[in-house]
User: What shape does this take?
Amino acid sequence: MSKTPPPSRPPVVLVGVQFPTVSDTEHAADLAELKRLVHTLGYDAVATVSQRRGALATGTVLGKGKLKDLAALTGGPGVVSSGARDRTSKARAKWEATQEEGAEEATPEPTGEAPEEVDAPVEEDEDFDAEDEEASETGLDASGPRPTMVVVDHELSPSQLRNLEKATGVPVMDRTGVIVDIFHRHARSHEARMQVEIARLSYLAPRLRESSGGSERQQGRGSGDSAVELDRRKIRDRLAELRAGLAAIEKEQDQRRYARREQLRVALVGYTNAGKSSLMRALTGSEVLVADQLFATLDTTVRALHPETRPRVLVSDTVGFIQKLPHDLVASFRSTLDEALEASLLLYVVDASDPTWPSQLEVTRTVLREIGADVVPSKLLLNKCDRLDEAARDALRAEYPDAVLLSAHRLEDVAGLRLDILRFFEASMVEAQLNIPYSSQGRIGEVYEHTTVLAEEYDEHGRKLRVRGLPAAIARLTRAFPVEQTEQG
Ligand SMILES: Nc1nc2c(ncn2[C@@H]2O[C@H](COP(=O)(O)OP(=O)(O)OP(=O)(O)O)[C@@H](O)[C@H]2O)c(=O)[nH]1
Ligand SMILES: [Mg+2]
Assistant: This one.
């Protein structure tokens, strides 16, 4: 969205299609999440139009009748008049096809070919369940404010977007557009901004042409660089530039990560709003942003466990996940997730007070599995348990005996988690004896940083230290200093 929403939240109507494989509860949860997403963006969802269908209607997402219902709310014609139907060109079709394959090198230049008429049929309603009418009634409030935008809970093709805009007479956003806009708004660091711009440009490029009237909306908030107004060639150049810039930043980060490789590292991962940043704050005393909104955190922050331990334990806060996360966004945030990949311990944080947490956990696990982080040892943290009653807590304890039930807001819970983390590392540590000659005393800080010093003696040659640390650190230190003996801790 290009404009800052005024203080009174503009009213929007949500549209969701319930596929046969999706239960009523899941569908309701999906729409509730979409409502939170649009709220995070500054809008107020005042109505919902929902339809049961086998698939999205190719032309207009919804069937004829539902489309009329929707248009009645927004004040649009309710049909895509044939003269106004989506037009497309071979170049566009090719562009869209290459985008889907992710083969951007093959992106054709706009050829200027005469546009061809593509049929955008308005399908008859094909509800698979007679309850549908009932379902769609809920959420319709004729007396409320007239929605000024439609937000669809699915990723739409550019032509579906345009057809819906014509039928409803108002701008239409899809789920991906909403998430890309939130990311755009919340990105802070140079790196996150670049990642988001890549995702945004990839999302917008195929939607740029023929977006009459929608162009302002599609520029996104605060896009002062006006990159999206440029033609696709310029967008492609910009994307290449961004990717190169990002690669340079990532190289720097790789080096920084390399320097941290011997340290004890824990990463907080999980669904958006689960409480990762709250736990990060509590564990490290850092001032990371905690907010009751989706995707508050887009940058990975690394801080030492506080009070500090010897050796230090580093904790990373990471970007949250969401179901149906746009593919480009996952790809562009992959580097942030490398942090998770390199941790020795992954803390999967869930909001246990949200009944849909098991499916949220599954979303997180799926993405991490894709990047190969499923081999990293992990612990499940059932957070926000202060919002549960004792019976619910008992039930969780019984069902997930290995999980940690906690509240990021309770000091004793956080202290317990800290001990769990330390115990985990303790178990994997080994002991060694280091002999540090007086000539190398300047390097003693290195030893203290990476190990726990158990005993210390002096003789005429130097210091003899009995230390305990992670195998990698011990191996390096024993190479650096003469060793008398090592043994498993
Ligand atoms: N009651 C309760 N609220 C919590 C707890 N942990 C976090 N919250 C609240 O949940 C909201 C989200 O917390 P964050 O720590 O920002 O969540 P996050 O996982 O970092 O979210 P993203 O950065 O958006 O992915 C905030 O309003 C927190 O105050 C908890 O244990 N109990
Ligand atoms: Mg956060």
In short: The longest strand covers residues 44-52. The domain at 260-426 is CATH 3.40.50.300 (Rossmann fold). Residues 276-277, 296-297 surround magnesium ion (ligand 2) (CB under 6 Å). The chain has 17 helices and 16 strands.
